[in-house]
Amino acid sequence: MKIAITGATGQLGRLVIEKLKARTSADQLVALVRNPAKAADLGVEVREADYNQPATLSAALAGVEKLLLISSSEVGQRATQHHNVLEAARQAGVRHIIYTSVLHADTSPLSLAEEHRATEAELKASGVAYTLLRNGWYTENYTGSVPGAVAGGAFIGSARNGRISSATRSDFADAAVTVLTTPGHEGKAYELAGDDSYTLSELAAEISRQTGKNIPYRDLPVADYAAALAGFGIPEGFAHSLASLDADAAGGALYDDSRQLSRLIGRPTTPLSEAVAAALR
Question: What domain range includes position 77?
Fold first, then answer.
């Protein structure tokens, strides 16, 4: 049985491969990547697979039984890119596709959810067994800003008092590995989020506690937050997208209390305090 992972040199893909190597034989794993040279250190078979070049996908999926389709990072192009992968997988005879979607994809107000809904619909209509991993927010999406917040004296955002049920990439990677290596997941959609939720004010309080410094949360209008992100060097379009996502979080778009993730992986999700501590190292 061959298990293939798309986006294998990305942050989530690398974690999944390392965790899979601890659960199954490395010679059963296939890393699908756009640039094979970047995957030389993965310790598994590497095949070129470019979402934008369908001709590369059919050969890359030959002999694959299970496919983890990690969603593309190219917002606005993902529905087409994912279509290319799904069509190639169907033609190659892949038997089970596991797709990393977004939390509550069917009802989410997040701007990025529409492309996920399109891919989910195509996957359900494909005739191939599927599992939807509706991943919530990565804790690292926020803790990546911790050093800057400490240096600048405040944590900024536009989420107001919205509660965020994030989990770490490692938590989400464990979920993918569980589905790839254990039976009974076909046809299921898992809403995956952290056991506990927090507001950005509570995140700032945790940063303050661990550093011994007063790091308040400053809530900004969406336009001001986008401008601040652009000032940090983030491309303007992406900065506006991030600020908009923060505003959606204010309305509860990143909240979930079902604890499906911890049940799936058989352990509690990583506490916020641990993620903040890792960011401060």
Answer: 2-135
